[in-house]
Amino acid sequence: MESLRRLLADLRSRFVSAITGREGRSRQITIAALSAVCLLALAGTALLFAAQGDPRASGNAAQSSPTLFLSTLTPTDAPTATAQATATTSGGGKKVSGKPVNVPKPPPPPPKPPAPPTATPCATATPVPTATATTTATSTATATTSSGSSGAVSLAALRTNSCTPCGVNAGNNPSQSQIRAALDAAANLYGLPRNLLHGFAWQESKWHQDVMACDGGVGLMQIQYYYQDYFNHSSVLNASGCGVSDTSYDIYTLSGNANLGAKVVKYLSCYYMRIASGKYQAAGLGFPDTASNPSLCATLYNDNTNGPTSTLYQDLPSSVGDGWSCPLDPTQGLTSAEVLDYSASAYNAGQTAIYNCSCIPNLGYVGAVEYWTSQFAQGALP
């Protein structure tokens, strides 16, 4: 740095001499101009080296960097949207797109479940019956179920016993015709497609009202006993304007269990249809987009197959105008999962799980519900 200062002083001296000396006028001007150029160039170089050698100068330069400014605008607490692979059920169920879709934050979730019971399992428990479906070349599935053993007791009585009923049935399952009648009445009460509610109940319990699951799920629609009051009296549901109101359903009865399950499905479908409606409006479309050409809802209604010979949305039965077949987000077109997919997913995984990943987190469950729905429509079940 000292040698640089001497050089600058020497140039300044020569510059002054060139101007005041005896050389000719033109020569003085030329030398003065050249000296000025050199002086400016060396001054700039000196400033550059000085800045690089001063840590405070380099820090200031970094703080004014546009890249760093932009990075401060990047949210760090936003939920990560994880793309899910396409999945099908073993019975040939519908492929469900898991492409991320941004959804609004859901209402507060139900209260956390209580601690697992510490009582010993019931020694005389009857294992939960299983149902198997066999798909033939014509996509006709048959299922076998067990109606339980004799000497039946109620699920409510089992839960109050000293033993813990877990993964058992009480042996007093209603007949299949009684179950169908209860589900049909619940579907009619909440304006749901009958076959869809049949599919939910089959996936949850294989149409067994006498089942107590290890997670506290009770009966046909597997409503956890510690959520019964919440789903009956929750202001989130009852003040949503979705056609549900305060109820007092008893999940230990067939009709009460079917009705409370239908109430939850109704609320969830309303919630996701409202999200879809907002996204369609933002895209300049009506919801459902039956007036647009081509209509996304109509395309999926007509072409979305669930098995070799059936069309899911025509099997509900439903229509384009119901909105079940519409993609949740029209800007993603047919690659977005439909309103039905999100509604079914939330029944099993909860709205919070969907929000946290902005995706369908349980593709297998969704595909199974939709597959069973088509099987009921074709008369293959129960």
Report what the structure shows.
This protein has 382 residues and is mainly alpha-helical. It has 2 domains: 2-71, no CATH class; 84-115 and 174-377, Lysozyme (Orthogonal Bundle), CATH 1.10.530. Helix content is 47%, strand content 5%. The protein has helices at 2-20, 25-53, 55-63, 66-71, 155-160, 176-190, 194-205, 228-233, 235-238, 254-282, 296-303, 312-315, 339-349, 351-357, 363-377; strands at residues 84-87, 96-98, 126-127, 134-135, 141-142, 168-169, 211-212, 217-218, 223-224. Strands 3-6-7 form a 3-stranded antiparallel β-sheet, with no helix packed on it. A two-stranded antiparallel sheet has the order 1-2. A two-stranded antiparallel ribbon has the order 4-5. A hairpin with a 5-residue loop joins strand 4 (134-135) and strand 5. Helix 13 (339-349) crosses helix 14 (351-357). The longest helix has 29 residues, at 25-53. The chain is globular. The termini are far apart. Residues 19-24, 45-91 and 124-153 have low confidence and may be disordered.
One letter per element, helices H and strands E, the order comes to HHHHEEEEEHEHHEEEHHHHHHHH
Strand content: 5-15%
* Secondary-structure-derived class: mainly alpha
Kindly report how far apart the N and C termini lie: 93 Å
β-strand number: 9
Count of alpha/pi helices: 15
Could you name the CATH topology of the largest domain? Lysozyme
Helix content: 40-55%
Order of neighbouring strands in the sheet with most strands: 3-6-7
CATH architectural group of the largest domain: Orthogonal Bundle
The mean pLDDT is 73
**Which CATH top level class of the largest domain fits?**
Mainly Alpha
Based on Cα principal axes, name the global outline: globular
| Main beta-sheet strand count, sense and barrel state | 3 strands, antiparallel
Number of domain units? 2
* Low-pLDDT ranges: 19-24, 45-91, 124-153
**C-alpha-based Rg, rounded:** 35 Å
